Amino acid sequence: MIFLKLFKESFLFALDALRQNRLRTLLSLLGVTIGIFTIIAVYSGVDTLRDNLQKSVNKLGSNSVYVEKWPWVSDGEYPWWKFMQRPVPKLRDFNELRQRSQTTGGISYEIGIDARTIKYGSNTVDGAEVNAVTHEHDKTWNVDLQDGRYFTELESQNGAPVGIIGNDIAENLFPGGTGLGKKIKVMGRYISIIGVFAKEGTDMLGISADKQVLIPLNFARNIIDVQAERYRPSIIVRGKDGIPVEEVKGEMRGLMRSIHSLRPNQDDNFALNESTMLTAQLDQVFVIINLAGGIIGIFSVLVGGFGIANIMFVSVKERTNIIGIQKSLGAKNYFILLQFLIESILLCLMGGLIGLAVVYGGTLLLNALADVEVVLYMKNVVKGISISVGIGIVSGIIPAWSASKLDPVEAIRSN
């Protein structure tokens, strides 16, 4: 109880000292404020970037394997000309995998046809992406429809002239309506709209269904060569629930090597891609960004810390006479030390809180003005407060220690 009482008195002394020197206190805060603002702003920016990129990666599916010609990530050791010689996935590969796989919960063959013009009457939409898919596309991707329905199995098998359009296309072609049941012209053919995708917005990887037209692959086969490399054919395999993606990937490698009749000493002539490959690359990038931001912030905080330490030495010098009087009245050394240490911590803590407030205000402003969700996690708030307290202790301990060791007689004599 005695210690708590002394701590309270030390706190009040420190608070009174800060009140009496408002301008000096304000100027002392700036360095710490800038340092904490820099550190937390960088960490929050990285968290925001990571979260938004992760949302994009999650669309690819955490339990999906993409059988393609090109790998998403290359170690740089495999010769590029060997990649060029690889065949693109064929419908034969798709059919064999569908029949022989034991781990798949869904498998689809898909192609992408970019930059097409979609027409309805006098209205047109340029730059639409037409994707032709087999029936189980809805099992390998999360299909979120605002209106209408997905293809029936009969429509997929027979190549019916039907399609699902993105939200942006629906808004431009049919202002005030969805266009269900209407016919639009795609690649020179008319198709009936049976569904409209829910609004997504463009994510950081550019993955969005807003300007997409989804049609059955068997319908596209009547118009184009769906196995041509220019359309980037891929086979997407989503594993059954409870089966690890590595097990799915292992089975796909064995089946593809068997389908392509590869000998044991031959390299794979296909790529097996998965979302974790992108996540691993992103983690490496974020580690570097976090490190760089932390170093910049630490230098800023150190500058602020030196400023606080300098102010505390000045404060000890100014109050030497008062320290002598307090000691002559029986004040213990730790009581004097607490006064100045608490004063230093309060200075840094106020600077840190101001820096956090500026970051928080910035996140609210960006969320209101920009089409992006900026986050400020509690872990960063705790980190900012902890750094502020730490800098306060480091900056104030030496001045506080020197004040506590002053001789009371010499201190009272000082001017």
From TrEMBL:
The chain crosses the membrane at residues 26-46, 285-313, 334-361, 381-403. The keyword 4Fe-4S does not apply. Residues 25-253 form the MacB-like periplasmic core domain. Keywords: Cell membrane, Membrane, Transmembrane, Transmembrane helix. Its main location: membrane. It is found in: Cell membrane. It is a multi-pass membrane protein. Residues 295-408 form the ABC3 transporter permease C-terminal domain. InterPro entries: ABC3_permease_C, MacB_PCD, Macrolide_Exporter_MacB. Belongs to the ABC-4 integral membrane protein family. PANTHER family: ABC TRANSPORTER PERMEASE YTRF, MEMBRANE COMPONENT OF TRANSPORTER-RELATED. This is ABC transporter permease. It comes from Mucilaginibacter antarcticus.
